[in-house]
Amino acid sequence: MSRSAHPAGPRYADVLPEGHHPAPPADLNALDPRVWSRTVARDAAGTVTVGGLDVGHLAEEFGTPAYFLDEDDFRARCRAWREAFGPDADVFYAGKAFLSRAVVRWLAEEELNLDVCSGGELSTALAAGMPAERIALHGNNKSTEEIARAVEAGVGRIVVDSFQEIVRVAHIAQKAGKRQRVQIRVTVGVEAHTHEFIATAHEDQKFGLPLAGGQAAEAVRRALKLDGLELVGVHSHIGSQIFDTSGFEVAARRVVGLLAEVRDEHGVELPEIDLGGGLGIAYTSEDDPREPHEIATALRAIVERECAAAGLAVPRLSVEPGRAIVGPTAFTLYEVGTVKELPGLRTYVSVDGGMSDNIRTALYDADYSVALVSRTSTAEPMLSRVVGKHCESGDIVVRDAFLPADLAPGDLIAVPATGAYCRSMASNYNHALRPPVVAVKDGTARVIVRRETEEDLLRLDVG
Ligand code: LLP
């Protein structure tokens, strides 16, 4: 197929409000390093490699769709966070973004801690040997069994999220003859500039206890009275995919304000604050995320200033990045199955995966980029919508992107920045088999999560 086969091929300006989306890139073969993982490159012959391996060979060996995770990039990002925050702070990787035993081992080696939010994540963390004291358990409705397991294992902290949970954790810890370290999750009343479903610091939502109106202060009062609990601090997570530091700064100020109130009322200085995760990443060339050192500098400055003003010792700070560590380190490789041009509208490119391996476009209107990676092309840009093979029209992977007009069945295309919340939110919709995660490093590729099989599906279906 060539451009001449698309005489009335859709042009960008025909179908999108002007200024809403970028013009086609100058070079469709270029791979913008802002959205691709560090070791992805296209060599002079046009071959795309990751960790030194040809993506065409990877597709042959591991099949498509598949996620390829760049281990060097993952480790480099862990180190950047550790170095940015330094020895007086803790970096907890948020396992919900993507968790596997290999990832847990990398985290342990890079001296990160781990935030888990379910019994399943806790099991994975413990199975891979993460020391329990470096694990934090989260969740707005942890089961009694999950709490008991965490207490038994000796997790470093449980972040309590309601009045009932304060009592529940205290009771379970006391029964186990332990004193559990806890933080209280508070909502600081910040409107994070992100999608409604991933904003978590405004008051009208399910997480945390609001500072405003005194529920957070009341939670502190109750927690301090219970023998089974050692209240060590306050936790705030304002949301996800956030690009400016101002929301974090407001959160830090308000959290320190609560510590000052606690000191005034109880004579106790809580030694820790956690400001959560949420730093955004580049999904497209238009995104301009902050670096870990920028956020570290801003947060440290504001915490130190507020503590000095309140006469408090500076508490130990922790943060919980998920997306900003794993998001940029992986791409999803798909094979093109059909290319359907709708004259005057756009071209629909169907791939062998879809909303089962990336629900983020359908759920949050997320933007992604895409590139042809099995060859180069000099064809003109074609406004494309990359769609999956599922039985619904909302099954969109990349809403609007330019691909070369000679794109054809059998071509491989890759969607970068799918390391976070893609495999971890993958489903079996239409009995799709969830793709593998293949870790790539220094010319070696190994499966760290294998592809699901029809046998796996049938094993759960007990007839
Ligand atoms: N800490 C807590 C308490 C959280 O709830 C979260 C994310 C994080 C840290 C990590 O946030 P991150 O740095 O990854 O933004 N499924 C959505 C994101 C939901 C995030 C839930 N909590 C998405 O695909 O965008």
For this entry, give a set of tags.
463 residues, alpha/beta, Lyase, Ornithine Decarboxylase, Chain A, domain 1, TIM Barrel, 2 domains, 9-stranded mixed β-sheet, 8-stranded parallel beta barrel, 13 helices, 23% strand, binds ligand LLP
Compact summary:
With 463 residues, this protein is α/β, with parallel strands linked by helices. It contains 13 helices and 21 strands. The chain binds ligand LLP.
Alpha-carbon distance between the termini? 47 Å
Might you state the CATH topology name of the largest domain? Answer: Lyase, Ornithine Decarboxylase, Chain A, domain 1
Estimated helix fraction? 25-40%
Taking the sheet with the most strands, its summary is: 9 strands, mixed
CATH architecture annotation of the largest domain: Beta Barrel
Describe this structure in words.
The chain is α/β, with parallel strands linked by helices. The chain has 13 helices and 21 strands. It has helices at residues 12-15, 55-62, 71-85, 101-109, 119-127, 144-153, 163-175, 215-225, 246-266, 292-310, 323-326, 360-364, 454-460; strands at 41-42, 48-50, 53-54, 66-70, 89-94, 113-116, 135-137, 157-160, 180-187, 209-210, 229-235, 272-274, 316-319, 330-342, 346-351, 371-372, 381-387, 396-404, 412-416, 437-441, 444-449. α3 runs parallel beside α10, α6 crosses α7 and α8 packs across α9. The chain is globular and about 70 Å long. Bound molecules: ligand LLP. Ligand LLP binds at residues 94, 96-97, 115, 138, 198, 237, 240-241, 276-279, 320-324, 360, 364, 420-421, 425.
